[in-house]
TrEMBL record:
Protein name: Putative glutathione s-transferase
Keyword Transferase: yes
Family the entry assigns: Belongs to the GST superfamily.
CDD domains hit by this protein: GST_C_Delta_Epsilon, GST_N_Delta_Epsilon
PANTHER family xrefs: GLUTATHIONE S TRANSFERASE D10, ISOFORM A-RELATED (PTHR43969)
Every GST N-terminal domain range: 24-105
Annotated GST C-terminal domain residues: 111-242
Upper lineage: Eukaryota, Metazoa, Ecdysozoa, Arthropoda, Chelicerata
PROSITE patterns (UniProt xref): GST_CTER, GST_NTER
Keyword Metal-binding: no
Keywords: Transferase
Native organism: Rhipicephalus microplus (Cattle tick)
GO molecular function: glutathione transferase activity
Assembly behavior: Homodimer.
GO BP of this protein: glutathione metabolic process
């Protein structure tokens, strides 16, 4: 009987923990259309973590309101508030969500060396590829200017490195999708389905990889479709001579 009681108590504890996870809502300070914000939302969707979205219009400087700056002195999005724990930087948020809510998930392997490889790829994708992509498109989107040849060269180099890192593998770390793939897909989606970049034709492997990823992780399209539409609309407004960040005329 004592053993049955212990088993019952253990099952109650497990059920209570699962209930707490299922009912916990994480606040996300979000900018619609932002690839880093999309990354966090895709990870949460895959893990079954419910998000309460607090959307900011960055062009209207809503992220500089005193309340948010007090919460995050760097005033960047995405930022989460998980029951009082505040965290920013998208890739840090992604790893945190897996470790807290789905520690057995293959998105972020427990094996030390495999996890280090995922981290390395996340750092490359966000620190090199995404940075080069934003540096290339920023003059177009914010100043109506054509990017310089140096910016194009740096962007092409980063895309080429992504091809090298992928190699002949199905996904960045092998046969399973990891956080690194979600990060790369969120960045590639901007140029494959959102903005226009002729140079992408030199990297067909990335387009093929992107399609494989979408089939393997349907949660991506469920979340990213809205963000990619915002980017397409912005590009269309810029092409027609309108303010790319304003409402269509």
């Amino acid at each position: 009987r004592i053993r049955r009681d212990l088993l019952y108590e253990a099952s109650v504890c497990v059920d209570s923990e699962n209930l707490a996870k299922s009912t916990m809502v994480v606040e996300l300070y979000n900018a619609p259309g932002s690839p880093p914000c999309t990354f966090v939302r895709v990870v949460a969707k895959k893990l079954g973590v419910e998000l309460k979205l607090n959307n900011f219009n960055l062009m209207a400087k809503e992220h500089l309101n005193p309340e948010f700056v007090k919460l995050n002195p760097v005033h960047t999005v995405p930022t989460i508030n998980d029951n009082g724990f505040v965290l920013w930087e998208s890739r840090a948020i992604g790893t945190y969500l897996v470790e807290k809510y789905a520690p057995e998930s293959t998105l972020y392997p427990k094996d030390l060396q495999k996890r280090a490889t995922v981290n390395r790829l996340l750092f490359f994708e966000s620190g090199t590829l995404l940075s080069a992509q934003m540096a290339y498109f920023r003059p177009k989107w914010f100043k109506g200017q054509e990017p310089t040849s140096d910016l194009k060269e740096a962007y092409d180099k980063a895309l080429g490195t992504a091809v090298t890192l992928l190699g002949d593998k199905k996904f960045l770390c092998g046969d399973n999708v990891t956080l690194a793939d979600i990060g790369l897909a969120c960045t590639l989606g901007v140029v494959i389905e959102g903005a226009e970049y002729d140079g992408l034709e030199k990297f067909p492997q990335l387009k093929e990889y992107y399609q494989r990823f979408k089939k393997a992780l349907p949660e991506y399209e469920q979340v990213a479709a809205e963000a990619l539409k915002l980017i397409r609309d912005m590009v269309a407004r810029a092409r027609s001579g309108q303010n790319p960040h304003g409402p269509p005329k």
